[in-house]
Amino acid sequence: MARLTENAKGVxxxxxxxxxDDGALDLESIDSMVDFYEGAGVTGLTVLGQLGEAPxxxxxxxxxxxxxxxxxxxxxxxxxxxxxxxGLAPMSELTKAVMGEGAAGVMVAPxxxxxxxxxxxxxYQSVGETLDDTPFxxxxxxxxxxxxxxxxxxxxxxxxVPNCIMLKHEDWPGLSKITALRAASDKGGMRRISILCGNxxxxxxxxxxxxxxxxxxxxxxxxxxxxxxxxxxxxxxxxGHEIFDAYLPLARYEQQQGIGLACRKYVLxxxxxxxxxxxxxxxxxxxxxxxxxxxxxxxxxxVRLKQIGA
Length: 310
Fold this sequence. Notes:
- Pyruvate binds at residue 216.
- This is Probable dihydrodipicolinate synthase protein.
- The chain is α/β, with parallel strands linked by helices.
- It has a single domain (10-234), classed as TIM Barrel, CATH 3.20.20.70.
- The chain contains 12 helices and 8 strands.
- It has helices at 27-39, 59-73, 88-101, 117-130, 142-145, 151-160, 175-186, 204-209, 222-233, 237-254, 260-270, 288-308, and strands spanning 10-14, 44-47, 79-82, 105-108, 136-140, 164-169, 194-197, 214-215.
- The protein has an 8-stranded parallel barrel with strand order 1-2-3-4-5-6-7-8, surrounded by 5 helices.
- Helix 1 packs across helix 2 and helix 6 crosses helix 7 (175-186).
- It is globular and about 50 Å long.
């Protein structure tokens, strides 16, 4: 598989990690999930992300998940692997393992201990050196890391760290950050890197309008993200918004802190993509009222999609 480059675009869906009812890895559901994502038209997959429950996996389980995904895809789509860790040694170890198996690149979020701009820069400079020539994605997700990275700091990192080739943009609000980074590359202040956006796709049409190259996030209907990105790429933003609007109520519900992933897995299981909606403990479960909310949203969504022919 070719390595990730600054030209990456499209939808790199954040994959869930399927578990059986008893919390064990469900390898067969990994296969069916990969098949579904590929059939939905995604450009690539990202595994071991935060909503892939990566912190709940052992080191061996992490390798098993990556190997299974890569084997199922057999080189047809690129795979990015989350390797964030408190230290550089475990990050380097997992990176070498997954790149050796055929991953296209890795993703790194900053540790919560970082506070200043210089500390952010120094961390990613060390990441670049530690990972050698492995292309990596800078994950900018202050809502969970509590680390704020200003556009000027990202510019500084991109200029100094050649293997930083993509920004996973999840700042909120963050549209002005996309604008600033695109202006910087347009003026020659930094090389142009790929910008894929997260936050469940809640701002995807606006992000595409600001110059994003696509999405790197999860949602129980990745068809929404694929449809929006394809519409914008075809020069038809109105169609992109029409598709987005049809899915927005469910996407908004799924974005709730705490139960959002439980909602996503519930719908994926309901769609027959994974066998069980189980989250590995500790993790929330949907209440009967939560499930009723989701079912109502699904019914309304089906009506709207039929109306717009999507």
